[in-house]
Amino acid sequence: MKINEVFVEKILTSFIREELYKFNYKKGILGLSGGLDSSVCAFLAAKALQPQNVICLILPYGEAFSQDVKDAQEIAKLLGVRSKKIDISPMVNAYFSRSPTKNRVAKGNKMARERMSILYDFSSREKALILGTSNKTELLLGYGTIHGDMACAINPLGDLYKTQVKQLARHLRVPEKIQSKPPSAGLWTGQTDEGELGLTYEEMDEILFQLVDKRMSRKEVIASGFKKAAVEKIIRLMKNSEFKRKLAPIPKISSRTVGHDFLYPYDWDR
Amino acid sequence: MRKRASVGRGKSVPPPSWLYLKWSMNYGNFSLVRIALAQISPHLGDLRRNLDLHFHYIEKAKKKRADLLVFPELSLTGYTLMDMVAEVALVPGKETIFRKFKAASQEISLVIGFVEELEKGLFYNSAAFLSGGKILHVHRKVFLPTFGMFDEARFFAQGKNFHAFPTPYGKAGMMICRDFLSYGASYLLFTGGAEIIIVLSAAPGRGMAQEEAYETSHMWELMGEAVSRFSTVFLIYCNRVGFEDGKHFAGGSFIFDPSGKMVARASYVDQDFLLQDINTDEIRQGRKKWPYKRDDKPEVILEALKRIVSKYED
After folding, report:
1. What's the whole-number mean pLDDT along residues A223-243?
2. Is B80 in Cβ contact with A269 (below 8 Å)?
3. Is domain B17-308 in CATH 3.60.110.10, yes or no?
4. Are A134 and A213 in the same domain?
5. How many domains does chain A have?
6. Can you give the pLDDT at residue B314?
7. Chain A residue with minimum CA distance to B84
8. A44-54: burial string, b at 16+ Cβ within 10 Å, e else
């Protein structure tokens, strides 16, 4: 589970640089929330592309998370990257005033997709490629909004569990207050990932590591000392979120079909 | 073969020149071959740009007076080709690209990786050894990894042989990437008389090692050490670097001498150009000391294999 931080930094900065250059992009853009994952991603992007080629969009909903906005601005200043703050509350409120809901997850998903929409707009305005900030824990558990925060062009942190991102953050010297902030999707005030999921990241990551990386069975993971309910919850979350990790299925009619047997790499002719 | 008094110039510390001098005085016949390894990152599916990349390194190796320049697996096309396989396939006897390589091989021997269309519609992951204006041998990858992140047997036809062939530097044998992880393949080249084994690779790194390298890099080095030592051959492994669809090719190309000692290693994960002189007389020296080759018993192994295979159930 432990990573070699120096090597991982090198892998991820080369990946960001090479992937952008292959597609003829010089600039990278990302949504900076003031949390750990997007801060680590900003640090890596600044190292990979030079700070002047990194754009961080800070996209708060009104004044709900003003401390996070300050932290994000501080990160951008520290790294010397370009940043821009856009309040998404007018757009989100405009929508919900017509289609009201009390469902806070639905509201949170709408906010995530509003941020995605702004990121893609700026990606095109600035000719900057979008760097995703989803980590392996989130991807495996489906703890993210499909076509929202999960949408991106490349996803540098996608093979690092949350605890590994933390390890990398220490190595990159991400400010202490960001490292020690309780992880939160920022869906509503006081929301924390661990509170919502009912497990600590250490527990979730260890269970996932055993199931996914070590290919242990459900029984073996429980025998290694985890509660049955916790292991089953993780398995259920993984199964129920496979749709977020795939292109939508296409019913096959012709002899060659997208998603079935029209097989080309992402880096086609690069 | 050119005889030269210069000594090893790879990244490792070369033996002191007086050692070579002493050697040559003691044994006379010492033969240095200057090996160059191009640890490149090919452009996926772009033959034209890759051809330029190859000739860039050919010029570079010629300037350094290298005798043999080795490129990685599928160096002309990139690795993750999928349905592009048919679009980038070459017929070595016909193509202009190969005429260029043949011409270049008048001055420097070349090992390149490419997609070969051997019969109409049959595509192989192949490696060609060119020297003196001719293709001396083409090896077609036998072990096509098809599991987990690999999908080669879906796109390539399977080669059927491991053959040692004469070159200006002694008998050589080639393997492509996963071939090398099957010790039977190395054994066939050893028994076939190979003195230099060349492995072309496009091996993605996986797993964390203690130091700044992928865990899998050690797997290749372990095999390199074992095969070079127990076959008393020079083992040349050329891997590629760069990313394709997030797969990170791990570099770390290397050369082992016939005593199982690593004499040169390229950078892990970065592009690199490795230059190393090898003394092919060390094969003879090694085999005097450790007569694995003399004591090899291919007849026993052949008969035992026949017995094992005949017991397979249908």
Report:
1. 96
2. no
3. yes
4. no
5. 2
6. 66
7. A264
8. bbbbbbeeebb
